[in-house]
Write a structure and sequence with these properties.
Blueprint: E1 10-11, E2 16-20, E3 25-30, E4 33-36, H1 39-46, H2 54-64, H3 71-83, E5 87-88
Antiparallel strand pairs: 1-5, 2-3, 3-4
InterPro entries: PQQD, PqqD_bac, PqqD_sf
Pathway: Cofactor biosynthesis; pyrroloquinoline quinone biosynthesis
Protein name: Pyrroloquinoline quinone biosynthesis peptide chaperone PqqD
């Protein structure tokens, strides 16, 4: 699946993003199981608030981490997240 850059990204209503204290990381919980996330993936998903577009997510994270050139990596991850049903547009 491909991200439409004009549409806002939102986290799936059938999944839950939460911090797991025991594992010291964010996870995605869903009826069939759990996905452990690295810090970068969790930061991207936290930006999927139903308001921000791909460009907004990239800008927010580049500003937060004082860097540039994240578009390709963020887009690639979000395409995986969209395919897996973690996010929707």
């Amino acid at each position: 699946m491909t991200i439409n850059p004009q549409l806002p990204l939102s986290f799936s209503r059938t999944h839950r993003l939460q911090w797991e204290e025991a594992q010291q990381k964010f996870v995605i919980l869903y009826p069939e199981g759990m996905v452990e996330l690295n810090q970068s993936s969790a930061e991207i998903l936290k930006c999927c608030d139903g308001v921000r577009t791909l460009a907004d997510v990239v800008s927010a994270l580049e500003e937060k981490f004082a860097t540039t050139g994240l578009h390709h990596d963020i887009n690639a991850f979000l395409e995986v997240a969209l395919t897996n049903g973690w996010i929707q547009q």
